[in-house]
Amino acid sequence: MRIRKPYLLAAAGALVLAASACGGDNSSKGGGSTGAAEQTITYWASNQGTSLENDKEVLKPELDRFTKETGIKVNLEVVPWSDLLNRILAATTSGKGPDVVNIGNTWSASLQATGAFVPFDDNQLAALGGKDRFLGPSLAATGAPGQPPTAVPIYGMTYGLFYNKKMFKEAGIDKPPATWDELIADGKKLTKDGKWGLAVEGASVSENSHHAFIFGQQHGADLFDSAGKAHFDSPQEVAAIKQYLDLMADAKIVNPSNAEYANGTEAVQDFVSGKAGMLMWQSIATQLKQAGWTEDDYGLAPIPLPDASSGGKQVNAMVAGINLAVFKSAKNQDGALKFVKFMTSKETEQNLNKAYGSLPTVKDAYDDPAFSSETIKTFQQILGTTAAPLPQVAQESQFETLVGNAMNQMFADAASGKPITEDYVKGKLTEANQQMGG
Amino acid sequence: MVVSTTSRPGGGREQGARGGAPPSAGGRRRNGLLPVRLRRLGLPYLLILPALLLELLVHLVPMVIGIGMSFLQLTQFFLRNWSAAPFAGLSNYRVAVDVNSAVGRSLFHSFLVTIAFTLITVALAWLLGIAGAVLMQGSFRGRGVLRALFLVPYALPVYAGVITWSFLLQRDSGLVNHVLVDQLHLFGERPFWLIGENSFISVVVVSVWRWWPFAFLVLMAGLQNIPSDLYEASAIDGAGWGRQLRSVTLPLLRPVNQVLVLVLFLWTFNDFNTPYVLFGKTAPRDADLISVHIYQSSFVTWNFGSGSAMSVLLLLFLLLVTAVYLVITSRRRSDA
């Protein structure tokens, strides 16, 4: 074999170049803030607005104010929900990540178990104004009971029933439904001419699992026993999930197409575009604002509670929200803690929660008139009285993925007209439960 | 990374003629530190050393780490410090292959779905590829344009192509249902394409759409190398188009096909992007392809050891298939 040297040399040269170029790239990314480490922190924000860009616009004035006050610059990255948990896990594994990160509060206990975050002990909480400054339900969703919070709440959210006032009026309904029977009856009145009573995000793992929890509470189901063992397929949970699926399968007030809604925005879109009259959701302030809706167009009511005699819990929402956590591996932990203090300060809480339509998690922020709108007051009342936190156990994220996933499949079957029986639901849930392993 | 030493296999004669000014002994006078023989032997190795090191770094090291992980009980409690994760022995493997357990059963189901998916995709992609290549062989007006057009799916970034498909396949607003239901009235009710049983058809169609241009490209290149005198000779012998295809084209394409089918098989079997972009994180059960399934399993239980064990099993399976395939095909070739 004859070797053509020029070619080989060129190829080898190119490789070496490529290799050194890669190396250069990595090192510049990895050790980004070496020179000015004192004065910079990296912050991963979750997507709370209508888009990642929208979030940057909302956060920028606040971050600028922080830089002005403390001299610390903030490198902001808004991470979409589909990536956030994976990114956090990767950062935990490699020890190279941001200084501060937003987490969904339902992940608190699972992430606490990794030991990735700085725990907020009483001293640190005192620096933020003390435990009592925070709303009780939100503070309860910050990690396993009895342990110092792994993160502090910054935005409070919960579930409510949004309804389209115009569609209700046209259908001759004068008030939002207070019981499940009423909700189904109203839904049937609204379902006509290509419009539907209720919109659900049927292929979204997180939405499905949240409803599995809320409906489960109403039927008195316990997802985990006191030893932390999973019981996803208890008769109560089976009944709960069947009730949720039957809104599509039996009552037929949900468009079967909703079974393929996966990205977390499509059901909201159906609601704000008037394709569906009701929506069980968390705050959708930014979407409503974008659609030009005011409180004359939509109303918010609590999701119906179960009959008091049914043996279920009087729960109609979960304590949702966003917590702020500081990585133990943070290059600038001091700066990160200053940032947490800033984010939980009265002014920042007011500005950001106003923009996102969420609830401030500190009590002193409520003196702003913006938080006395009907919607906010209703959310506040739900969060304060009938919302329960998801189980704060290390396996919580497994519950979300496994049960949410099983419900995706069940919605797909319901949409194609397969009968949804108790045995069928139990079978799917048992399968999910078995995957929890030992 | 293959550094081709000759530009065109089988074109040796031309090449000798082209190399009119051989660079041969020019550079050998300098540098007498090493014996010429050693230098000549060592040079190729020296030159591929950078490639080899990169290959080690990019492929082998992560693979070895992955194999190591598969023996650990690497759960969320040990993510920060892998060395603290308890040694699990073969238990991750045992769970994965135990078809009586929920984990093993779903893995096995996903494995079967993937095999069916791969066989159908490769067969269709190859058929379309050979049809396209043979039809494009004769020259006609617009051939270049058509060739370029055919390569578009392969040239498009995966994400852009597949996400467009997912829009097309939506039940209410997708173009596919618009054509099938509103225009052609083939179905009474709008079918679902992204969930339920039809999702298998969808992923096969999208995957064929994505891979057939590659088959087309490779087969087209293979056809260029078949000397035209063979076609002329067979035509004189009275062979028609079909006979030429069977007795000239296909036998001469055999070495190309051997590689093509293997590569298509491996790529399709391992393809993560297509199902992930099409269905998102949670694939419907009927289209639960193994690469996404393994990814999902790792993140469902946050037990990355178990996910690694599944990946190692997949690797072993593919190695076995490749070995058997190569043995069979090369034996047949040496028989011929």
From TrEMBL, chain A:
Origin species: Microbispora corallina
PANTHER family from the UniProt entry: ARABINOSE-BINDING PROTEIN-RELATED, DIACETYLCHITOBIOSE BINDING PROTEIN DASA
Signal peptide interval: 1-23
PROSITE patterns given in the database record: PROKAR_LIPOPROTEIN (PS51257)
Protein's name in the database: Sugar ABC transporter substrate-binding protein
Keywords: Signal
Family matches, as InterPro entries: Bact_solute-bd_prot1 (IPR050490), SBP (IPR006059)
UniProtKB/TrEMBL annotation, chain B:
Xref: CDD domains: TM_PBP2 (cd06261)
Membrane association type: Multi-pass membrane protein
Annotated spans, Disordered: 1-28
InterPro entries cross-referenced by the UniProt entry: ABC_transporter_permease, MetI-like, MetI-like_sf
Transmembrane portions of the chain: 45-72, 111-136, 148-168, 200-223, 252-269, 308-328
Keywords of the record: Cell membrane, Membrane, Transmembrane, Transmembrane helix, Transport
Subcellular location: Cell membrane
Family: Belongs to the binding-protein-dependent transport system permease family.
Protein name: ABC transporter permease
